């Protein structure tokens, strides 16, 4: 469930950001998305990418733990 | 004593502290009404009064169903599924604003003080601190505010005095009053000034239900809004008289620029650090409030304790902080052209105005229903 | 009645009839029963104590009945044993024979403190506690006589928490002495001590003390619960207990107040706290304790109030200095030179010119050296102690600067930090700053001033989240209570300090009701 929420929030946030970018830059949706995902040279955007990936892993782990606890309670 | 442990509660004082730091948080970074030049403070004064009105409207909504937060109110008025759907929109809104607020701070840090630090590091570390605090709960959040408020308050006041005694103030800068008439002021107040520091208080609709003395919360919040409005006016006046209208229009971080004029006893110079501290704590409070509000929304939608979602969502916010715009110019551009009209106004005014009648109708019916049950 | 019975109010046991002795030995392989036959008892005692050299079992005759005196020779004063027990019976065997153990006691040992032991467990327990146990053939109970203790350390001046004005007694290692030190100061029938026996191997006596008319029941129950939960092998000092009862052990800050000053413990008791006294430890604990407790010395209350208030502010300042100063130096000198006043910057940089290390390495080196010196100074035999200070002052202080290894500003900073860290009246609190200082230096080295701010905010969040027995650690500051402020940062005069701290939820929140502000005698005259 946490993973699901995570994915919803992640995709929703991307869509929101690209919508605003579309409004500002008057570009098409795909251009904007492409621009979001290209790592600019000389910046440290990989750090952020890494963080978000860690967040994803975390949500999976939390989900696993939640399920395990639930199973134990039912037993 | 045992009860205290179980329930997450804020005291009235803690609520006031959080409201206050929330209000002056990002205003201390980017300032308000810079385009209005010497009339900025008038606009702030008017919008403070209007802001108090907005807050009392929010409180009135909350009083219809005591103990229920914004998301629960929406479920009451819109029904289960529609309520949750609109709740999800609010979550996006809260998270997005949290990202914007955090971005303000990151830009301040990286462009003015720590030029060598990558912006991503600031965003990640700040979100780490915020996630830690929110994970520990609302009580811890309130108490942290209590610890820092004396410093934030006194430093804010002292900056004014220090610039004054440094002889950098020129009160002629305040003149002429309303040279261009009231037109620009009114245009600036709505939607920008009304939504930016004041309308954002809609997030407190998630927090105020957790206050111990709920019936007094309304009064306290209105007073706090007025007080913080006065502090914002104070700050704006400092900025105007120190920087002068020309420089005020050009500068991005007015309070910091004003503070750089401070030079006392040839020793107290470059008090940037103090400003950064005020700003940092204000930003932490503000982002935390938005973050907490969004998390509570997710908790309401999914029925999972928000503590489980703190860490993943924190990473998303630190990600979004960098992604929302490529550079500071774009960030400001969005803040002026898009955000007030298409995000603040619908979420702060239109939606609440929409569900207010529904809420009144539903709670009325409920109250009547409970009355008849009681009589039977 | 034994001394311990006088001092402790026996705890009503939850498990019904079982006495502390039974609880203590319930897991051990010792038979419980006390037999009528002397031989059987003697045999099982010998079985239990056969390998210890200090156990003796002397046969005596009490009137016509066979008896024996069992004791651990090292646990009691052997001279008084001979005088009072071993010598007495022979002389008075003329008149009619006593029937039961009570009469025996009446006849032969009328003046001595005593207890009866009706189970074998009790017999063993009494022997271990230094009683002389007299077992008489054909009796259902044994008679335990308290002989008087062996040598113990005299009450001396406190060695870690010295003050200039105020009582100069300190707790000792003996629990009975410690309790009497407290009782001497609080003559109140509602001052209650309950005893617990903790430690599977050591069976150490732990007493909790409180004033029942003040202390909140919830706190008290919480303390009892936590103490009863403890199951460790050995309790050798109150520190062992401390770690088992705190709310959260992963923190550098001490969540339990410890002191060796009886007056300090008494003032805590009268505020509504609970004292924990562990046999064998001169450090008595007080719970729940809050952050501000560690900045208050008992002398604050013995001096006129203006100076202590000032000193308290100095203490808070020096806490911040001890924490932040080295990292500020690192951050300012490596990242933010522009934030320093120009003259200061020039003089610092001029001194740093020949130094071959970056500021972080430099300060880490010096701080580590200082920590090593401090540790060596504490552990060293006194006779060699002088060497450390000479080596420290000359070699590391002066020579290192002259050799150009470190800058002299840095030596000043390290020294000042070290002195500032000693200001906290409670030693275990100054340890916390030592540890955090290193982390802070690392943060400053990586993120600069931003890192320092970041760390301080994290530290405050952590502090605020701590609880000591359910009481918020920063209580009366966060959550803020205006009525408690009379004794936090400032100490108001005694007549203004009327309330007990509200975070302890005391049963009687007001200390003195009357208005007692002193004023000069009213001068009549003037108009009349």
From TrEMBL, chain C:
Q: Does the keyword Transmembrane helix apply?
A: yes
The residue range of the signal peptide is none
Membrane-protein topology: Multi-pass membrane protein
Q: Does the keyword Transmembrane helix apply?
A: yes
Stretches for region Disordered: 502-528
Q: In terms of one coarse class, where is the protein primarily found?
A: membrane
- Any one Pfam family here would be GerA
Q: Which GO terms describe its biological process?
A: spore germination
Keywords, comma-separated and alphabetical: Membrane, Transmembrane, Transmembrane helix
Origin, by domain of life? Bacteria
The terms describing its cellular component in GO are:
plasma membrane
Provide the protein's localization.
Cell membrane; Membrane
**Which InterPro entries does this chain map to?**
Spore_Ger (IPR004995), UPF0353/GerABKA_families (IPR050768)
Transmembrane portions of the chain = 313-335, 384-401, 407-427, 439-464
Of which family is this protein a member? Belongs to the GerABKA family.
**What is the designated name of this protein?**
Spore germination protein KA
């Amino acid at each position: 469930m946490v993973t699901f929420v995570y994915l919803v929030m992640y995709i929703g946030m991307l869509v929101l950001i690209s919508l605003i970018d579309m409004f500002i830059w008057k570009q098409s949706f795909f251009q904007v998305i492409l621009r979001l995902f290209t790592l600019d040279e000389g910046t440290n955007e990989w750090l952020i990418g890494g963080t978000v990936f860690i967040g994803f892993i975390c949500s999976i782990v939390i989900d696993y733990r939640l399920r395990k606890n639930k199973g134990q309670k039912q037993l | 004593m045992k009860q205290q442990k179980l329930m997450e509660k804020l005291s009235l004082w803690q609520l006031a502290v959080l409201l206050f730091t929330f209000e002056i948080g990002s205003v201390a970074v980017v300032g308000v009404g810079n385009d209005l030049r010497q009339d900025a403070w008038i606009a702030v004064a008017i919008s403070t009064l209007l802001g108090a009105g907005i807050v009392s409207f929010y409180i009135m909504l909350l009083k219809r169903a005591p103990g229920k937060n914004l998301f629960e109110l929406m479920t009451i008025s819109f029904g289960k599924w529609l309520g949750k759907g609109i709740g999800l929109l609010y979550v996006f809104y809260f998270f997005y604003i949290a990202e914007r607020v955090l971005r303000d701070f990151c830009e301040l840090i990286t462009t003015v003080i720590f030029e060598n630090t990558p912006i991503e590091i600031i965003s990640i570390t700040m979100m780490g601190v915020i996630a830690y605090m929110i994970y520990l709960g609302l009580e811890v959040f309130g108490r942290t505010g209590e610890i820092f408020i004396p410093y934030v308050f006194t430093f804010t006041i002292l900056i004014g005095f220090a610039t004054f005694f440094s002889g950098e103030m020129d009160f002629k800068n305040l003149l002429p009053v309303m040279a261009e008439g009231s037109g620009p002021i009114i245009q600036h107040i709505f939607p920008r000034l009304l939504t930016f520091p004041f309308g954002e208080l809609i997030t407190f609709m998630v927090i105020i239900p957790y206050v111990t003395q709920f019936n007094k919360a309304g009064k306290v919040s209105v007073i706090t809004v007025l007080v913080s409005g006065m502090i914002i006016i104070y700050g704006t006046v400092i900025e105007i008289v120190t920087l002068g209208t020309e420089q005020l229009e050009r500068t991005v971080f007015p309070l910091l620029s004003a503070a750089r004029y401070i030079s006392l006893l040839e020793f107290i110079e470059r008090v940037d650090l103090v400003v950064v501290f005020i700003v940092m704590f204000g930003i932490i409070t503000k982002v935390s409030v938005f973050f907490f509000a969004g998390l509570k929304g997710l908790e309401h939608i999914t029925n999972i304790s928000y503590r489980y979602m703190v860490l993943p969502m924190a990473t998303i916010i630190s990600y979004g902080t960098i992604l929302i715009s490529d550079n500071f110019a774009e960030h400001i551009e969005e803040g002026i052209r898009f955000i007030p009209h298409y995000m603040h106004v619908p979420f702060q005014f239109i939606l609440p105005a929409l569900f207010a009648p529904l809420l009144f109708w539903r709670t009325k019916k409920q109250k009547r229903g409970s009355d008849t049950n009681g009589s039977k | 009645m034994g001394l311990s019975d006088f001092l402790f109010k026996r705890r009503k046991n939850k498990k019904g009839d079982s006495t502390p002795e039974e609880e203590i030995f319930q897991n051990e392989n010792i038979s419980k029963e006390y037999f009528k036959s002397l031989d059987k008892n003697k045999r099982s005692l010998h079985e239990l104590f056969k390998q210890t050299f200090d156990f003796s079992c002397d046969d005596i005759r009490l009137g016509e009945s066979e008896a024996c005196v069992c004791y651990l020779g090292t646990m009691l004063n052997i001279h008084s044993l001979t005088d009072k027990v071993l010598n007495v019976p022979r002389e008075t065997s003329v008149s009619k024979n006593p029937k039961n153990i009570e009469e025996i006691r009446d006849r032969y040992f009328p003046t001595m403190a005593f207890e009866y032991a009706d189970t074998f467990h009790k017999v063993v327990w009494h022997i271990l506690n230094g009683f002389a146990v007299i077992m008489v053939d054909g009796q259902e109970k044994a008679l335990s006589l308290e002989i008087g203790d062996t040598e113990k350390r005299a009450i001396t001046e406190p060695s870690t928490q010295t003050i200039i004005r105020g009582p100069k007694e300190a707790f000792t290692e003996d629990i009975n002495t410690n309790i009497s030190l407290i009782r001497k100061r609080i003559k109140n029938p509602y001052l209650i001590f309950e005893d617990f026996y903790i430690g599977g191997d050591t069976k150490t006596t732990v007493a909790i003390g409180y004033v029942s008319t003040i202390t909140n029941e919830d706190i008290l129950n919480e303390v009892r619960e936590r103490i009863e939960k403890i199951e460790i092998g050995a309790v050798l000092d109150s520190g062992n207990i401390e770690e088992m009862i705190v709310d959260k052990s992963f923190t550098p800050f001490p969540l339990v107040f410890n002191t060796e000053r009886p007056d300090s413990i008494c003032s805590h008791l009268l505020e509504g706290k609970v004292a924990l006294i562990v046999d064998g430890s001169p450090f008595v604990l007080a719970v729940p304790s809050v952050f501000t407790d560690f900045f208050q010395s008992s002398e604050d209350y013995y001096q006129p109030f203006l100076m202590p208030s000032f000193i308290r502010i100095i203490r808070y300042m020096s806490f911040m200095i001890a924490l932040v100063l080295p990292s500020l130096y690192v951050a300012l000198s490596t990242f933010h030179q522009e934030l320093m006043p120009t003259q200061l910057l020039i003089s610092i940089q001029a001194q740093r010119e020949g130094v071959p290390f970056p500021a972080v390495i430099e300060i880490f080196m010096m701080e580590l050296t200082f920590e090593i010196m401090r540790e060596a100074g504490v552990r060293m035999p006194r006779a060699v102690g002088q060497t450390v200070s000479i080596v420290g002052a000359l070699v590391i202080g002066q020579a290192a600067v002259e050799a150009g290894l470190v800058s002299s500003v840095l030596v000043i900073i390290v020294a000042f930090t070290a002195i500032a860290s000693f200001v906290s009246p409670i030693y275990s609190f100054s340890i916390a700053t030592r540890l955090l200082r290193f982390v802070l230096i690392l943060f400053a080295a990586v993120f600069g001033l931003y890192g320092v701010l970041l760390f301080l905010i994290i530290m405050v969040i952590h502090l605020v989240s701590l609880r000591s027995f359910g009481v918020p650690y920063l209580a009366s500051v966060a959550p803020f209570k205006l009525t408690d402020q009379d004794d936090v940062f400032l100490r108001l005069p005694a007549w203004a300090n009327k309330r007990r701290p509200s975070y302890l939820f005391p049963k009687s929140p007001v200390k003195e009701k009357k208005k007692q502000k002193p004023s000069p005698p009213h001068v009549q005259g003037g108009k009349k």
